[in-house]
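Pilot study result, target chain (177 residues):
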Amino acid sequence: MSGPVSHPDRLIKTSRLVVRTAWVANRILLVALAVGLVLSWTFSKQFAEWILTGNPEANLQSATTGIRWLIVIGIAGSAATDRILVALVQVIATVGAGDPFVRANAQRLQTIAWALFVLQLLDIPGGLIGKFYPGMGSFAPSDTISIVGWISVLMVFVLSRVFAAGSAMRDELEGTV
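Predicted structure:
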């Protein structure tokens, strides 16, 4: 086991900055989506005008409902992304401290994997919205499923198990010394 790193390398510093910046941006997005959803009902006339500005031929009822559902999916996706970023900040901190192979990181990776799983599942209703609300026109999301995304989910679940086994082996080795 190596000791704490006194001067974290550039990758750790950059990763920490990027992930923390993404976390702040994601929190802002989460609040904006929640406020936007509320405002879509509070100012429904202006919301309708905005939709028609973006797509003058849109079926207003279909587009309004579809966009509101997309906002709900966006809120769920932002919440899942928050779980990923919080766990990732903690993993990066252990790497910077020189001790990444701990049980807590195995759990953090599992949290990341479940959040990635949720994000992949959100592709399904996202794609269905375009089909059920055809009046959305250009606002409609595509209905593609990401194979790379699903492979990433599996990879992080496996990596979580690797970290769990590695930390258990390390704990066992430290107990015998």
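One observation from the pilot: The chain has one domain: 10-176. A full batch analysis is planned for the follow-on phase.
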